[in-house]
Amino acid sequence: xxxxxxxxxxxxxxxxxxxxxxxxxxxxxxxxxxxxxxxxxxxxxxxxxxxxxxxxxxxxxxxxxxxxxxxxxxxxxxxxxxxxxxxxxxxxxxxxxxxxxxxxxxxxxxxxxxxxxxxxxxxxxxxxxxxxxxxxxxxxxxxxxxxxxxxxxxxxxxxxxxxxxxxxxxxxxxxxxxxxxxxxxxxxxxxxxxxxxxxxxxxxxxxxxxxxxxxxxxxxxxxxxxxxxxxxxxxxxxxxxxxxxxxxxxxxxxxxxxxxxxxxxxxxxxxxxxxxxxxxxxxxxxxxxxxxxxxxxxxxxxxxxxxxxxxxxxxxxxxxxxxxx
Length: 325
Description:
By secondary structure, this protein is α/β, with parallel strands linked by helices. It has 2 domains: about 5-185 and about 225-250, NAD(P)-binding Rossmann-like Domain (Rossmann fold), CATH 3.40.50; about 190-220 and about 250-285 and about 305-320, UDP-galactose 4-epimerase, domain 1. It is about 40% helix and about 20% strand. The protein contains 10 helices and 13 strands. It has helices at about 15-25, 45-55, 70-80, 100-120, 155-175, 195-205, 225-235, 255-265, 290-295, 305-320; strands spanning about 5-10, 30-35, 60-65, 80-85, 125-130, 180-185, 185-190, 210-215, 220, 225, 245-250, 255, 275. It has a 7-stranded parallel β-sheet, with helices on both faces. A two-stranded parallel sheet has the order 7-10. It has a two-stranded parallel sheet with strand order 8-13. Helix 2 (about 45-55) links the parallel strand 2 (about 30-35) and strand 3. The protein is globular, with a radius of gyration of 19 Å.
C-alpha cells in the first residue's frame, strides 16, 4: 500500500477537544487522520456534526473504530505516514465510571497501550495524550502542581488517567518515545460535551428545568476555555521531549455559584436550583499551577469566564435553534 505524506493521528477526533484540536491543525495546513468509535456515551448526532466540519477539509481522513482494536490501528498506520500521535480518545466522566467501570479499562487502558505499542513499532516522533486534573484526587494543596504526589485518586476515571502517565513513562524510558501528558482542567466552550456542567445547566435553564448543584454550591473549579486548551495542546505537539507532564488550566478557581450567576445573566433567566450533597468521586476544588506550562509551552490562557460562557451560549442557541430570550 502506498503511504500518504506525513500526518498527525488524532484519536477521539469527533470528541469535544479532539474536534477542536483537529480543526486547528487543519487550519494550520497539517494533514490529520482522525479515529473515533462514536460511542453513545452522549449524543452521537453532536459528534457527527463535528465530524462533518472536519470532513470538509481535503487533508482530513477519518476511521470509525476503537483504539483498542490493534489490528485496525495497524492498518491505519500502514496506510499513512504518521509522525505524531495526539491521543484524546478516552471514556470520559467521573460519575459514569461508578456504574460502567469496564468501559474505562477498554478505552483508557487497553486502547492507550495499543497506541503506545504502535508508537514504538512505527517510531513516531511525538506522543501527546490527554490526562486530567482528576489525578490530583483529594489533594489538599491548592493550586495543584505537577510536582505534587498523585497517589490518591477518588474515581476509577482518575486512576486510569494516572495509569496512563505511568505507562507512558515506562514506554518513554524503554523505547525512547517522546511522551507528553496534559492534565486538562474543566474544559468548556462551543461544541462542548452534554454531560458537563455548562451544557447541562444551559439546557435545563432554557427549558425551565431545575439544575442540580452539588455540595450545596460549595465547589470551585478551574474552568478553562477550549481555545486556550487547544493552544497548549498544539504547543505540546510541536515540542517533542523524552517525558513531561503539564497542567493546562485557567489558573483561576471560580465558585460554582458565581459560574451559575454569570450563565443566568447571559441567558437572561434565573436557574431553579436543587441543592444536593457531594457526589462520590467528586472533589470540592480544582486549581492549576501553570508556571511550568507557561515557561516551557508558552501557555497563556486569556479567555475570561464571562466571554467564554457567552461564546458557548451563542453556539448553543444557534446549534439548537433556541431563541435569544
